[in-house]
Amino acid sequence: MLAHLLPGLSELFGPFNVFVYISFRTAGAVVTSLVLAFLLGPVVIRRLKLMNVGQVVREIGPETHLAKSGTPTMGGVIIILATT
Length: 84
Prior knowledge:
Elements: H1 2-5, H2 22-50, H3 76-83
Helix pairs in contact: 2-3
């Protein structure tokens, strides 16, 4: 949206011309996605823990892996939510 509004204003204020560059818009999208992931991450993890969506750990493996029991396994959901 800003890419359509601000380039027309570049005649009045030169720095608005930066919105024409695809690299600047890509960096803006990456930063926005990262901020959304940081903000949505704790909420999604809390919700997954409430739903008991957790990793099942085999008892045959190392004892240190037992501490991972109940860790939410759908962290990719955060990435998908942040990038769409």
